[in-house]
Amino acid sequence: MKFPLPKPKILLLNDVQELLDTRRLIFEAHGAEVTTGRGTRESIHELLREPVDLILIDATNVGFRHAEFICETAKKIQPSIPAAMLVLPHTEVPDNTQADRIIYRSSAAHIVSEVYDLLQSREISI
Fold first, then answer.
1. How many CB atoms lie within 10 A of CB 96?
2. For residue 17, is it within any domain?
3. Is 79 helix (H, G, I), strand (E, B) or coil?
4. Which of 32, 38, 47, 56 is deepest in the core (most CB within 10 A)?
5. 1: Cβ–Cβ under 8 A, 6 or more apart, which residues?
6. What is the CATH number of the domain that holds 58?
7. Using one digit for the tens of pLDDT, what is the confidence trace for 33-76?
8. Which residues pair with 85 in a beta bridge?
């Protein structure tokens, strides 16, 4: 599946650089423009630097508390931004999450498909 043009801008957030690099390559191969952030401070800096079409936070690695803070802050900076959290399968997710979608970490194809669906459901021109 390729994202149609123009390229959607996706901000990937994770504390693990290797996962950021791998996911960047995957999303770029599907036609997205990707920026990354490690940690809360760098993530907020990236959000302030340039608007994005979607934010994808690996809550498993950054932790739910930080992921929720990043979601809340992102929506203050850019109210219409869809935010998704990646979590491990069978993870107990809080009911009151700020994320628009919870994506269970499985295959790369599953994650890309979920992101694509979220972008389309938010009626963002991708």
1. 6
2. yes
3. coil
4. 56
5. 30, 109, 112, 113, 116
6. 3.40.50.2300
7. 999 988 888 888 888 888 899 999 998 888 888 888 888 998 89
8. 57, 102
